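Subject: sequence -> structure tokens, single chain

Hey, anyone have a minute? Need the predicted structure for the following. Not urgent.
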Amino acid sequence: MFFSKRSSRTHDPYEALRFPEFRYFIGVKFIVTIAVQIEAVVVGWQLYDITKDPLSLGLIGLAEAFPAIGVALLAGNIADLVSRKRIVMIAYSVLFITAIILFAFSYRQAYFLEQFGVWPIFFAIFLSGLARGFNSPANFALMSQLVPKQAYLNSSTWNSSLWQIGAITGPTVGGFLYAYFNAATSYAVSAGLLLLAFILFAFIKNKPLPPILKKEALKERLLTGLRFVFRNQVILSAISLDLFAVLFGGAVALLPIFAAEILKVGPEGLGALRAAPAVGSAIMAIVLTQRAPMQHGGKVMLWSVLGFGASMIAFALSTNFYLSLFFLAISGAFDNISVVVRSTILQMLTPDHMRGRVSSVNQMFVGSSNEIGAFESGVTARLMGTVSSVVFGGCMTILVVLFTHLKAPALKTLNLLHLGKEQEA
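Reply:
Had a minute. Here:
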């Protein structure tokens, strides 16, 4: 069996939750996820409502990905040298500022459109990408300091679970707020949640930074994470698999078009569509806390990405709203498996003193693939049509899985249970 259940003496489904600071950590992440997802669903609908151009939806992803990728290596190096808690709190402050900018734009939308067009929206998105670029490696490195190594898989599962629940709640709330109030109210709620998250995160204590094993020049430190990833076949293949799957297979950026023109369900329906993958992912997360993919982690990851691509093809071809929700939920369930396996691989195989830099490489390739994929979706939707572009992306995802299966034997035979025992030894 791919999903193995260990005995109650060796497997505690709530192991990571028994550490108070980890509970604070995932609680804050849950709140931030809701806030960010509210912004995402409102920005997508608002911008498409203004421009009626699918490429503008793709440009949202590009505006966020460029700064995140641009600062990734530097941010990873800083996360290994500076208080990770301080970095995260500064990042949350910047996200709060972006919510205020979006609120101001929406409150006086006619004035800003006349003076600046939609550029204030893209400026706010650019700032959020910058904040995310610094936040991601610091956040990942800090999480690894809140639980012992034997709880890494369990902490990855719970971290993903809370994120997914937030990703369910955020779009639903955002769609409701936009439909029954307005964009300005939606952004005000998002800003309030980010302020709450900033306050709660202060209760986590500063953690000591890992010792610097040798003195290196800045250029050498920046390249160390890249070299580590590219020399490790398991990490490289896991990151590459997720990168190309999300790059080609995602359809989130095009959901406003599906909601408005294909399924005809309005902003409330858009919120449901945005939340559907997270519903499937949250259900799968519960399964993973009980039956973790330990023994055949690599094979499980390959099958899950294959399932993700197939479910996106099915979604693209559906013209029934409820069937579309089902296929999106299935895609989220498959996606969560690959996310948990990849995160566990990174935690187990990355030395403490390199967590920030290796995480920044992961952020460059996988963390920003959603945004780059959004741009790819916008371009292909303009060139070949919305439905055809999503079908094309799903087919490309399946081809990537087949290529990885042939070229990455180390991932194919990966046993997370053995890997964990080796790390403990």
